[in-house]
Amino acid sequence: MNKHVKVGIFFVVGLVILLAVFDFVGDMPFFGSDYKLRTYFESIDELREGNPVKLEGYAVGKISKIRLADRKIEVEMTVAKDSNIKTDSVATIRLTSLLGTSYINLSFGSPGSPVAPPGTVLPSEEPADINDILVKVDSAVGSIESALGAFDVLGDNKEQLTSIVNNLNSVLEGLEKGGELDPIQKGFI
Hints:
Layout: H1 3-26, E1 34-41, E2 52-55, E3 58-69, E4 72-80, E5 91-95, E6 102-106, E7 124-125, H2 130-150, H3 158-177
Parallel strand pairs: 2-6, 5-7
Antiparallel strand pairs: 1-4, 2-3, 3-4, 5-6
């Protein structure tokens, strides 16, 4: 093998090792600009690893791990150190769209509360079950339809009123065209 080829292979292998070391050190909270927080939920619906973490709507990190933990679901979040998450910030699951993508929203917490150190377990608020909401909406729509059905003002006269409106419409069209109306042709007499 040529001397230049050996040097090139050595350089590439060294570069790969160097990138692996930077990747490993970058995940350590001491060296990195991010740190990890945790929270627990009983249900997470469509929450996935990699989904955003937001502080009242402002992106501050992402969900790094989701795992089962003693009849609850532990959600580990990686957030920026400068985001100043408070120890009493409440984690909730919110939807970004009706398609089901969701994220963790953190409240600001109280002004006097200390900033959460790495590894802090934040309190959480369970999300509303979308299926329960849809059942309630369906029930409300059914109630509205039945209530409006009780107010059927036209009743049996609906067909007659439709006929009158159609006849008036044809009369107005004839007047608009400037033609003379023949009441017999129009079906009025």
